[in-house]
Amino acid sequence: MRPILLRSDGTVLILVLWVLAIITLIGGYFALEARISRNVSGVAWRDLQAEAAVKTILTVISPHLANEQTAAGGSEGGLVVPDGRRYHLKGQGLDVWFSVQAESGKLDINQADEAMLAALIQELGGPPGAAQAILDWRDRDGDPRPDGAEDSYYRSLTLPYGCPNRPFETVDELLMVKGITPDLFWGPITYPLESEETQWKGGLVDLVTIYSKRKTASPTFAPLPIKSLAGEIAAGSGRGGGSGVFCLKLEFGGAVIRAYWSPEGKSFKLLDWMETPG
After folding, report:
1. What is the largest CA-CA distance in the chain?
2. Per the structure, how many domains does the chain have?
3. pLDDT tens for residues 37-61?
4. How much is the average pLDDT of 247-256?
C-alpha cells in the first residue's frame, strides 16, 4: 500500500509520499533492537517511536508550510496550513493524527496585557482573575495585584516555591501560576462552551505561546477561541511580528506530543517538547 497524507476532510495533499515509509523503517529498526537487547521498556520504546515520528513529519512538512499571504488568498493547494486543522497519516501499520499551529496565531503570555489574558481564560471557562497572577509571575516587583499572587502565596503552599518575577521561559510554567489548573491548561475543553456541536477541542496550552513576541495574536492562523475574540486579542496581519515558530501536535500511542520548532531552509530546529497522556 502506498502511504498517503490526508487532510481531515479526506482530500489528498500533494506532498512527499514516502514519509510513512521512513517512519516504518525507523520503527522496524528500533523494534529489532528492542527484541535483541531486551533492555528497552515499553515506555522507552514508545518514546523512541514518537521521537522518530515527530522528526520525520517535521522533515517533510517544513518546506511545505502555507504562509499568511497564501492562506489569506486561498492558495493552500499542496501546502500544510498551520492553523490547527488536523491531518491524518495512515499506512503501513501506522495511524496518527497531527496538526500544525503557527505560534503567531496564539497569545504571547509575556507580551499580552491583563484584559487580553482575562478574556481568553474566561472564554475557556477559567477564572479571569488568573490573568493578574500571570502578570505578577512575569513582572519584576513583589507586590501582588488584588487577584494575583507573589511569594507570600506560593511559599504558603504544601509544596512551596517562589515567584520568579521574570518572563515565562516555557508555556507549561503556567501550571505553577495561581488559578491555572491542569484541566484548564491541558483540557480537553470542547468549544464553544455549552454547545452540542464541538468546533474546537484543546486547552490553554493550545492558545498561548512564548514565541510570537507580539502583544496580539495574528488572526490568519489563530485557533477558533482566539478568532472568536478577534476584536479583543487578535489584530493585524502578523507581518513584522512573530518569530516563525510552529507547534506540531501529534496524537501518537495514546499520548499527545507538542513539539515547538522553526523551519530552517529544508530542515528544522526543535525548540521544546511536551508530552501528556491522550
Report:
1. 63
2. 2
3. 455 556 666 777 778 888 888 888 8
4. 86
Residues 31 and 101 in one domain: yes
User: The cell 477541542 sits on which residue?
Assistant: 201
User: Is 207 a member of any domain?
Assistant: no
Sign of the four-CA dihedral 123, 177, 276, 272: positive
Please report the pLDDT score of residue 11 as a whole number.
41
- What is the distance between the terminal CA atoms of the chain, rounded to a whole angstrom? 28
Question: Residue 203: its pLDDT value, please?
Answer: 94
Domain range for 152: 111-188
Residue 161 has, within 13 A of its CA and on its CB side, a CA count of 10
> DSSP label at 53?
H
- Return the residue matching grid coordinates 503570555: 109
Spatial contact of 88 and 19, defined as CB atoms under 8 Å apart: no
- pTM for this predicted structure: 0.82
Give the domain-ending residue among 188, 206, 230: 188
pLDDT of residue 36: 43
DSSP conformation letters of 2-40: --EEEETTSPBP-S-TTHHHHHHHHHHHHHHHHHHH---
- Of the candidates 188, 204, 228, which is a domain's last residue? 188
Going from the C-alpha of 22 to that of each of 17, 60, 66, 133, 209, the distances in angstroms are 10, 10, 24, 45, 31
Indicate the range of 144-153, 205-214, 238-247, 263-272 predicted with least confidence. 238-247
Q: Inform me whether the pLDDT recorded for 105 exceeds 90.
A: yes
Q: What angle do CA 77, 78, 81 make, to 5 degrees?
A: 80
Q: Is residue 209 part of a domain?
A: no
